[in-house]
Design a protein that fits this description.
Elements (H helix, E strand, L loop, with lengths): L4 E5 L11 H9 L3 E8 L5 E3 L4 E4 L2 E4 L5 H6 L11 H7 L8 E5 L2 H13 L6 E5 L2 H10 L4 E5 L14 H6 L4 E5 L5 H9 L3 E5 L4 H8 L8 E4 L2 H20 L1
Parallel strand pairs: 1-2, 1-11, 2-6, 6-7, 7-8, 8-9, 9-10, 10-11
Antiparallel strand pairs: 2-3, 4-5
Helix pairs in contact: 8-9
Length: about 250
């Protein structure tokens, strides 16, 4: 039985400070993939940070209006430091098997990410996720070999209701659809797999849902995103031990 690949969402934000180098390192130590977000600062530094706008000490900041140096000088809780995409790639340079999934904040951020990944020889390690078909189309024109993921809105209950353009996805060589865990059911899985696409599931955070998805057979789910990679690993090991026990009886 092949289990879904595990991505630590924002590095595993249930265990550490999200989108930071120590958090990414923790994910590497668990031997799982990393999911993170990238966007530009005002001076076009590509950083790993989720929110466009954030509050700090009752003051509101916009990432696009701050230089990277200005961002670094802000005093975040727990002495948080915001890494650049370069920082992340330098950290994983020797971890050639690790996969990194990126949510991008705009087409230009996606193009910059691809360029940086190629500089480090890590293009094959990255996967870029977006909800906009036009963005995926533009990224495909920019780089033919990058892995792209089409993430569906959480508002979509049934794949058939989403009017997913499967022909367009195949034409763009986008071979993966990403579903929210609350929409993860066998009908949706089958619809995706029957169109010769892979299925990823995001927001898989509670034990019961992790166990349910980990136990799905026939490789219906290829990967999951979770805040708790440690729990996902424990459940995966528990399932494997149970299978081995049955096979030995």
């Amino acid at each position: 039985m092949k289990h879904p690949y595990i991505f630590a969402h924002r590095g595993g934000m249930g265990l550490c400070i999200e989108n930071t180098l120590p958090c990414f390192l923790k994910a590497l130590n668990y031997n799982v993939g990393i999911e993170t977000d990238v966007q530009f600062t005002g001076d076009k530094e590509l950083i790993c940070f989720h929110d466009y706008v954030f509050k700090l000490n009752s003051k509101t900041y916009s990432v696009a209006n701050l230089t990277y140096n200005e961002l670094q000088k802000l005093e975040f809780p727990n002495n948080r430091k915001i890494p650049t995409a370069h920082d992340l790639f330098k950290m994983i340079l020797k971890e050639h098997k690790v996969r990194i999934s990126f949510d991008i904040r705009g087409i230009n951020a996606g193009k910059a990410l691809i360029t940086i990944a190629k500089q480090y020889g890590l293009l094959n390690n990255i996967e870029i996720s977006d909800r906009r078909m036009i963005v995926l189309s533009q990224l495909r024109k920019f780089e033919n070999n990058v892995k792209l993921i089409y993430t569906l809105s959480e508002d979509i209950v049934k794949i058939n209701d989403a009017n997913v353009n499967f022909k367009k996805l195949h034409k763009l060589n986008v071979n993966t659809i990403n579903l929210k865990s609350s929409r993860a059911n066998m009908k949706n899985f089958n619809e995706i797999v029957n169109h010769d696409l892979k299925c990823y599931v995001w927001d898989v955070n509670n034990k019961s849902r992790l166990k349910k998805i980990m136990q799905i057979e026939n490789e219906k789910v290829s990967a999951i995103y979770t805040d708790y990679p440690n729990i996902a690993i424990a459940i995966r090991n528990e399932i494997e031990e149970s299978i081995n026990s049955l096979n030995n009886d």
